[in-house]
């Protein structure tokens, strides 16, 4: 099958999933008697497949708790369940003005058998412990709960209930985390998943060595005829 046709098939496969968040398996026939099954993921799907997004401006706390249990402790939980339970058992006026607190989360988790507390530690301590944590980030005066999912080198992987997975430079993360408080599940038989390849796949690293120079990339275009089109 000519290269252009293969490219065309791949483009069609990508377009077939549109802008939705669901993955799709697309069959491509490159030639007579052969076929390929392509698993296609949109970038949006990759960013949210292990993060539960918040539905309200002040519900990042309930979404963070749902993310922690669902994707790190294999305890599926919807944001609606976490939100409704914490709201019903909390200070509703305060929650509507300020959002949930670590105390709301602690009560919710411990009622389900998950001992949870806040600890003031360094990012290195959290990395050595190898467990996921909920932290309160502050950006331009805006307070927001996120889940720390992993660390590699000088980068921190977070599950942000507002946008999904984010890879943040360590310096930037620490500047937005003045309290140095991590909220974690502890003394539990199962250790929460941390630094998983699934989560880091939102930003894959190259296994192929050094990247090509900009000049080389500029000369490599999709539809320029080559010496042999196959």
From TrEMBL:
GO terms (BP aspect): proteolysis
Gene Ontology molecular function: any one: peptidase activity
Pfam families, per database record: Peptidase_C39 (PF03412)
Keyword Signal: yes
CC annotations in GO: membrane
Annotated ranges, domain Peptidase C39: 54-184
Signal peptide limits: 1-23
Gene3D superfamilies in the cross-refs: Cysteine proteinases (3.90.70.10)
Superkingdom to which the source organism belongs: Bacteria
Keyword annotations from UniProtKB, A to Z: Signal
Name of the protein in its database record: Peptidase (C39-family, bacteriocin processing)
Organism: Candidatus Nitrospira kreftii
């Amino acid at each position: 099958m000519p290269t252009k046709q293969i490219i065309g098939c791949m483009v069609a496969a990508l377009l077939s999933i549109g802008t939705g968040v669901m993955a799709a398996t697309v069959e491509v026939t490159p030639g007579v008697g052969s076929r390929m099954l392509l698993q296609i993921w949109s970038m949006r799907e990759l960013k949210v497949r292990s993060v539960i997004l918040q539905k309200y401006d002040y519900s990042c706390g309930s979404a963070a708790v749902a993310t922690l249990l669902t994707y790190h402790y294999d305890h599926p939980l919807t944001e609606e369940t976490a939100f409704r339970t914490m709201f019903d058992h909390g200070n509703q006026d305060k929650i509507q003005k300020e959002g949930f607190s670590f105390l709301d989360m602690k009560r919710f988790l411990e009622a389900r058998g998950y001992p949870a507390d806040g600890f003031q530690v360094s990012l290195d301590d959290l990395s050595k412990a190898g467990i996921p944590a909920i932290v309160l980030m502050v950006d331009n005066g805006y307070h927001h709960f996120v889940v720390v999912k992993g660390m590699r080198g000088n980068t921190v992987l977070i599950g942000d209930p507002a946008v999904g997975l984010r890879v943040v430079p360590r310096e930037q993360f620490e500047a937005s985390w003045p309290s140095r408080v991590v909220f974690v599940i502890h003394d539990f038989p199962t250790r929460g998943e941390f630094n998983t390849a699934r989560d880091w796949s939102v930003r894959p690293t190259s296994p192929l060595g050094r990247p090509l120079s900009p000049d080389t990339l500029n000369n490599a275009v999709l539809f320029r005829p080559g010496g042999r089109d196959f």
